[in-house]
Design brief:
Blueprint: H1 2-34, H2 40-51, H3 65-99, E1 112-115, H4 121-130, E2 135-139, H5 142-150, E3 155-157, H6 163-168, E4 176-179, H7 183-196, E5 201-205, H8 212-218, E6 222-224, H9 226-241, E7 250-253, E8 256-262, H10 274-277, E9 286-292, E10 295-298, E11 311-316, H11 318-328, E12 338-342, H12 346-357, E13 361-366, E14 375-376, H13 382-388, E15 395-398, H14 403-416, E16 421-426, H15 432-438, E17 442-445, H16 446-458, E18 462-464, E19 472-477, H17 486-489, H18 491-495, E20 498-504, E21 507-509, E22 523-528, H19 530-540
Parallel strand pairs: 1-2, 1-4, 2-3, 4-5, 5-6, 12-13, 12-15, 13-14, 15-16, 16-17
Antiparallel strand pairs: 7-8, 8-11, 9-10, 9-11, 18-19, 19-22, 20-21, 20-22
Helix pairs in contact: 1-2, 1-3, 4-16, 4-19, 9-12, 9-16
């Protein structure tokens, strides 16, 4: 919008300058060719009458050819200005004014109201779209709302803590409301929404764990704490790679567990293909998928080669998975089990607590000199990293609240300590591939954790079992494919998902061949990455 105001100001300035020049020339021309002396005011009147083609009241009937031609030129200039102003200035200004006016209400019903938009909201939006649940964003940034609307996303503008804004969002007819701004604003939104409707399901995203009880007291039905879950998950990944013990596992039954395993450099599996590893044939473990250099491959073929930093998503008996875990750990001499934690916010602090609970020593680096910080400085500073002992540490957790800093820190770490294991937090999912290319071994985004946790609360008949991992494991019904066999549906080819197990009449079925027929009351446990799960939900649910 500022561009158009600048354009208008420049145009008006140019017209003003033209009028002044014409008035001066008119004065000179009347004196030289007509022998009459005109004041500047009189000249100005004639020029304006000419340019606006309004007719002449002060002067008419010039005797000299030069003055007649000059007046004709002024008339033509006026006409030209009118024709230029309409298409180049007036019409675009009206169009821009209409486009830049953000919508302030919605007609949606039985929808989800999401108060506050951030890039991490995109994961939740994808989950809701896959489940065919309508939603509307409410934000107090008019330009952001216009951008969202132009992109085809339902959004309205309004002050988040005002009742009229929630009424405009049709919160009284909504199925649920999510507030994800900051802890104080969230509390006000909860109070306002609860006053508007006593039946509305309200979910709040909590930054500081201590305020969760206040949000519940204000009227929130659920509170989610993604930063704490993210910190715990990153720390657990570090403790998992420090030992052969199997952790971070989803127990589906006594005979079936699902987990993801990071293959370390110099471990027994590195350099082998899936077939050569014997994971399927000898150990009886199902490889659901794998991340190769950050790219998820559903059901990798027997010729896929396992490299260092490959992440395997596998399902099988816990004893077999424990044996496989031992084969993913480096066979070289164990390095000191010290972990450097870069960043001491909510995520970093939670990670340190989790590591300490598992007996792992830490060295904390943060810009702020505060209790719990061992070294004050930037995690991207080589001198700071050397002081922290990066060349001797086993792993580093990058938990800072800025993706650009995290990416740069990964690049620096690979120069300072090439063998260190980098486990990183990302705020936005689009930066995950960049972190892998920068040298990270494991990356988990706050957007993914937040979106999945919220989706698990908001979407009925779909339970997300793994909000804190790189893959998604959901428990859901699949009415659209009832009566069809897995071979007929061909879910792997069409969606990239794997049906790990089926719950039927209180029994967990794991021997699922292509001839297995899905019943209407079956609950399927499905694994895949986010996009694959969304494709599955759109197809089968």
């Amino acid at each position: 919008m500022n561009y158009w105001w600048r354009r208008l100001a420049l145009s008006l300035g140019a017209v003003f300058a033209l009028v002044v020049v014409y008035a001066w020339l008119y004065q000179l021309g009347m004196a030289a060719f007509e022998g009459e002396t005109k004041t500047f005011a009189q000249a100005l009147q004639i020029v304006i009458e000419s340019l606006t083609t309004a007719g002449f009241g002060g002067d008419a009937g010039w005797d000299s050819t030069a003055m007649n031609l000059f007046v004709v030129g002024m008339n033509l200039t006026g006409v030209l200005l009118v024709f230029l102003a309409l298409p180049l200035l007036v019409v675009p200004l009206f169009q821009q004014a209409l486009q830049d006016r953000p919508p302030e209400s919605t007609d949606l019903t039985d929808h989800v109201v999401i108060c506050g938009y951030s890039p991490r909201s995109d994961v939740l939006a994808d989950e809701l779209e896959a489940a065919n649940i309508p939603y509307v964003f409410v934000d107090d940034d008019p330009e952001l709302v216009v951008d969202l609307t132009n992109d085809g996303t339902e959004a309205i503008y309004g002050e988040l803590d005002q009742e009229e804004t929630l009424r405009a969002a049709n919160a009284g007819e909504a199925k649920s409301l999510v507030t994800d701004v900051d802890d104080e604003t969230n509390a006000v939104v909860i109070l306002t929404a609860r006053e508007l409707s006593s039946d509305l399901t309200i979910v709040s995203v909590v930054e500081d764990e201590d305020v969760a009880s206040y949000h519940r007291y204000a009227g929130a039905d659920e509170t989610v704490r993604p930063r704490r879950v993210l910190g715990q998950s990153l720390a657990t990944k570090a403790t998992t790679t420090l030992s052969a013990e199997l952790r971070d596992t989803i127990e589906l039954s006594e005979d079936l567990s699902v987990t993801e395993l990071l293959v370390q450099d110099d471990s027994d599996l590195v350099g082998r293909t899936v077939a050569e590893s014997g994971i399927r044939d000898r150990m009886g473990i199902t490889v659901i998928g794998a991340w190769f250099n950050g790219e998820f491959v559903p059901v990798p073929g027997p010729d896929h080669r396992i490299d260092g930093n490959t992440i395997l998503l596998v399902a099988g008996r816990r004893d077999d998975l424990t044996e496989l875990k031992a084969r993913t750990v480096s066979t070289l001499e164990r390095r000191p089990e010290n972990v450097i934690v870069g960043g001491y916010g909510v995520v970093g602090r939670t990670a340190v607590e989790t590591l300490a609970g598992n007996g792992v020593s830490t060295t904390v680096v943060d810009l702020a000199d505060q209790p719990g910080v061992d070294i004050t400085g930037s995690i991207t500073d080589e001198d700071v990293l050397e002081t922290a002992g990066a060349d001797e540490a086993r792993s580093v957790l990058l938990t800072v609240n800025d993706d650009a800093t995290t990416i740069y820190a990964a690049l620096v770490l690979k120069q300072v300590a090439p063998d260190i294991e980098i486990i990183a937090r990302a705020n936005e999912t689009e930066n995950i591939p960049k972190l892998y290319r920068a040298g990270a071994e494991y990356v988990l985004s706050l957007s993914t954790v937040t979106g999945r946790m919220l989706a698990s609360v908001l979407i009925e008949d779909e339970e997300i079992l793994t909000p804190e991992t790189q893959f998604e494991l959901v428990r859901t019904t699949a009415p659209q494919i009832a009566g069809q066999s897995l071979g007929e549906v061909d879910l792997r080819a069409r969606t990239g998902c794997t049906v790990v197990a089926v719950e039927r009449d209180g029994e967990l079925l794991t021997d699922l061949g292509p001839e297995f027929v899905v019943n209407a009351d079956d609950v399927l446990i499905v694994a895949g990455d986010d996009d694959a799960i969304n494709r599955f939900v759109a197809l089968a649910c």
